[in-house]
Amino acid sequence: MTETEIFEIVAETLVEALALDDDEVTATATLTGDLGAESIDFLDIVFRLEKSFDIKIPRGELFPDNIVNNPDFVKDGSLTEKGMAKLKARMPHADFTDFEKNPDINNMGELFTVQTIVNYVMTKVNGQ
Amino acid sequence: MRWIWIDRFVEFEPGRRAVAVKNVSLAEDHLHDHWDAFPIMPCSLMVEGMAQTAGILVGQARDFKEKVILAKISRAQFDDIVTPGDQIEYHAEIENITPDAAVTKGTVMRNGEQIGTVNLMFSHIDQNLAGQQFPDENFVFTGQFERLVAPFLEAGDG
Lengths: 128, 158
Description:
The complex is a heterodimer.
Chain A: H1 3-18, H2 39-53, E1 74-75, E2 78-79, H3 81-90, H4 97-101, H5 114-126
Antiparallel strand pairs in A: 1-2
Helix pairs in contact in A: 1-2, 1-5
Chain B: E1 8-13, E2 17-23, H1 29-33, H2 43-61, E3 68-78, E4 87-97, E5 101-110, E6 113-124, H3 143-157
Antiparallel strand pairs in B: 1-2, 2-4, 3-6, 4-5, 5-6
């Protein structure tokens, strides 16, 4: 599948899961900040992507868990070097450029963009 | 008033689907506030009725070990009203169930005619990603809910 085809299906999935208008879903939109996703929506999105693309998404693979509640990985509200390394290893599909400049855990939402999902699905569907 | 918005199950296929009925009666106080001159069953309480039907279905699928909490109303649409004397049927089906959560889809029937759709998502809250702790006691599934489904499970066991 091409990136454009995957984007279109991801966009439809997000429109359904988050009750959005079609034009709200852009590649750079963040799920929580721009599209209003709450914690349960992340699970809903995972379920819907599995169905839309006929793939299995293991727990924590698309949206990593057990990072922010691990004291080794977070200090004074920011990701430690170790935490950053761990998160980058867990999320090769995300763009860390901005987040690395200010790794406050409140900014973690910046990592979860529509493009992050598209990149992830591309690796699952096309094995790349 | 008891917070139970289904009268009984009429079908129950463990882990798959269930149908519960609710007979709407003018003896129910809430109908006189919604509204006195023209009582109709509130849509919000029909969402609750579906949540109870689907929630028990989801809970039973894990032998009532999980605390099943309504986490999201993915879709709720009602195309017509329900008034005293009507019988509501909630048809719920499990679409997906995992260690963390379950997704159900459902239709609401009034006297045999489909009038609504209610699709829900439930969380197994002890498995939540934030690692929050909840009391050991299962405060979701009390005897009252389990009794509703017991006849079907006994029949299935025998």
